[in-house]
């Protein structure tokens, strides 16, 4: 159990980010759910009624370095520390490569890659002062194996894997761990419908992953895998090792 620990999750208003937040809460952590969508305040308040830890919501824009810096300062002021940060905020456009517009590419890179970079930079500065910390970034199975149409998204998520490795080496001797988790085909509000149905037959386990399932992986990597750093953990129902 993780009583007395403080976890921060970005992109937590719904989907995987919400599930990660709830898994930390189930294990007794104090949790801060952050998102640019003010809905996060309501979902955090509802979660706080269900679990024993102190659970709050915070409006935070991962594409705004001042929002990130001020948000982290607010959290430390309220909670006294941060043990784990899950950089989960992101999204993407599914189009054949040559149909991607400049705006499609820039928006995806800015949200997924630059947003993660800006968060990591401030989190690491905080953890250096604190003397410890664990970061888990959200990558994607599409970084390694994909069904097509993910040019901008893959560029961003591959970049996240690269940044994860770089930061892990830079701070491995500072008691700061940096890893990423690459979910496979996960049932969330963002990918339900035609895409899910199209790709599902390629999954050897013949079903989609639930957000609750992959959330357990994030929490394990953040809190229990204490000799792991610079790694990307796949939770994909076997897709990356073969088709069935």
Structure description:
Belongs to the short-chain dehydrogenases/reductases (SDR) family. Keywords: Oxidoreductase. It comes from Lactobacillus melliventris. The chain is of the alpha/beta class. It has one domain: NAD(P)-binding Rossmann-like Domain (Rossmann fold, 3-Layer(aba) Sandwich). It contains 7 helices and 9 strands. A 7-stranded parallel beta sheet has the order 3-2-1-4-5-6-9, with helices on both faces. A two-stranded parallel sheet has the order 7-8.
Total strand segments: 9
The second-level CATH architecture is 3-Layer(aba) Sandwich
Looking at how many chains there are and whether they match, the oligomeric state comes to: single chain
Strand content: 15-25%
Elements, N to C (H/E): EHEHEHEHEHEEHEHE
Which class of secondary structure composition applies to the elements? alpha/beta
**Might you state the CATH topology name?**
Rossmann fold
Largest sheet: 7 strands, parallel
List keywords for this structure.
two-stranded parallel sheet; Rossmann fold; 244 residues; globular; seven-stranded parallel beta sheet
Blueprint (SSEs and pairs):
Layout: E1 6-9, H1 15-26, E2 30-35, H2 39-50, E3 55-59, H3 65-79, E4 84-87, H4 102-130, E5 133-138, H5 151-171, E6 176-183, E7 186-187, H6 194-199, E8 209-210, H7 211-223, E9 232-235
Parallel strand pairs: 1-2, 1-4, 2-3, 4-5, 5-6, 6-9, 7-8
Keywords: Oxidoreductase
Organism: Lactobacillus melliventris
Protein name: Short-chain dehydrogenase
């Amino acid at each position: 159990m993780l009583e007395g620990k403080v976890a921060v999750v970005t992109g937590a208003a719904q989907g995987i980010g919400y599930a990660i937040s709830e898994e930390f809460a189930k294990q007794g952590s104090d949790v801060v759910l952050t998102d640019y969508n003010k809905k996060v305040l309501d979902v955090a308040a509802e979660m706080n009624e269900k679990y024993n830890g102190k659970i709050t919501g915070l409006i935070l824009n991962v594409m705004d370095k001042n929002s990130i810096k001020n948000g982290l300062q607010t959290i430390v002021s309220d909670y006294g520390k941060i043990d784990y940060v899950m950089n989960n905020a992101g999204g993407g456009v599914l189009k054949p490569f040559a149909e991607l517009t400049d705006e499609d590419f820039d928006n995806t890179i800015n949200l997924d890659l630059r947003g993660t970079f800006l968060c990591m930079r401030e989190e690491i500065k905080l953890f250096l002062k604190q003397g410890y910390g664990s970061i888990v970034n959200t990558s994607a199975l599409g970084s390694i194996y994909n069904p097509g149409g993910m040019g901008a998204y893959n560029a961003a998520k591959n970049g996240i894997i690269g940044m994860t490795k770089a930061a892990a080496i830079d701070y491995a001797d500072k008691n700061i761990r940096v890893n990423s988790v690459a979910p496979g085909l996960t049932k969330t509000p963002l990918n339900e419908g035609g895409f899910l149905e199209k790709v599902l037959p390629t999954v050897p386990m013949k079903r989609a992953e639930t957000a609750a399932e992959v959330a357990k992986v994030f929490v394990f990597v953040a809190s229990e895998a204490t000799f792991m750093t610079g790694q990307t953990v796949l939770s994909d129902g076997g897709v990356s090792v073969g088709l069935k």
